[in-house]
Task: structure prediction
Amino acid sequence: MFPTTSRTDAAVDRFDWLSVTFLLGAVLLCYYLVPLLSLIVSQPPGVVLERLRAPEVVSAATTSVTAAVTSTAIATVFGLPLAYWLARVDGRMKTVVTALVILPLVLPPIVSGMVLLTVVGPNTLLGEAAADSGIPLTRSLVGVVLAQTFVASPFVVVTAKTAFEGVDRRLEYASQSLGKSRLTTFRRVTLPLAWSGILAGITLAFARAIGEFGATIMLAYYPRTMPVQIWISFSTLGLENAFPVAAILVGIAIATLVVLNALGTNPLE
Result:
């Protein structure tokens, strides 16, 4: 029996398990890549460029970019302080706040929209007050920004928190021991060292915001964003008419990956 066991062990040792894992993973990679390539080659480039000039496509792209830039800026202004606080405290409160930050990431987007409607909807106290002031919080660009900020801002907080935690605390202590204030230490030591990670989070938040659909369609069917325009075109005119806007979003997704790799701090790796 012993020689048989030895031969089996030797055969197992010779087996190239790394190649097996790659072959199994390649099935999943094909599942990602084939639909994307099929989408790209399904329409001639000239036809796509012609449809990209359609007024509804230009309007949807303008709305999406404007709202995504605004929501990303809001997420950065309020998310960075929260990320720094989370990176520098310990205890139960940190756990609770971190869970609260992650909650929008795990909620289905359509549920996120429903949650927001209970606060800023047209029949709520805040929604009515804003509408009376001439700033409707739904069916407006403000509604799009609110939806995008809710679902995209956690990317800034979570990624920046990790970047701040990666900064050596001894460098901050050394700065403060030399008489520098906490704000000066943050500005001259912590922020530069964590900047690449922070920028990666901002990039991810922008990409998530510009592709947001579920929460946006609940709060603001109009003005149409690119994902909403894709849905309208697909459901009313078919896949071919939805393709130009989808091509823009695919381009933005690829550009996001390029930026993240250029930063050298890809949190997805």
About this structure: The mean pLDDT is 87.
